[in-house]
Amino acid sequence: MRGLRKAVLGAVLAAVTVGAGPAAGAAGSVPGPEADLSHHGHVSLWGGRVGVWLVSENHGPSDLAQATVRIAFSSPMEGGRELPPACLWSSDRVVSCRTGELLAAGGTGELVLDLWTAGLPDEMTVEITTAWREGAADPDPANDRHRVLVLATGDPYVF
What we know:
The chain is mainly beta. It has a single domain (2-21, 34-158), classed as Immunoglobulin-like (Sandwich). The protein has one helix at 2-18; strands spanning 35-46, 49-61, 68-73, 87-91, 94-98, 107-116, 123-132, 145-151, 157-158. The strands form two sheets. The protein has a five-stranded antiparallel beta sheet with strand order 4-5-3-7-8, covered by helices on one side. A four-stranded antiparallel beta sheet has the order 6-2-1-9, with no helix packed on it. Strand 4 (87-91) and strand 5 (94-98) form a beta hairpin.
């Protein structure tokens, strides 16, 4: 478990410190691989619990051995909650998860989170973004960034 957390954290830190590299088409730059990631699913909030159901897809043209999705909550989560093996807590409001291999044109990864909030919020905002994509450029980054306002009704808010 500790090795997995180090690997995921290393990938997240690499994305933050290294960035995406030179812009495609810049003078003297060589275009790298492209992978159009998208994240879709829904979020529900009820009785101090929040559920996130997420599907990540790669629309190509390049395969990805790994990507990292970041899920940020506007309210703090209760500490000590178990996460799926591919995930780790980045803070009391942020979970980072590896997607696993995403093959071009249809590779998918699924993620389910069942968490407890620190209090009983009436609403919260959940932000879903790609934090790292193996250095591949994304020609359409809008479909892997979502901000969802979730009311504490138990209803699924789709993104």
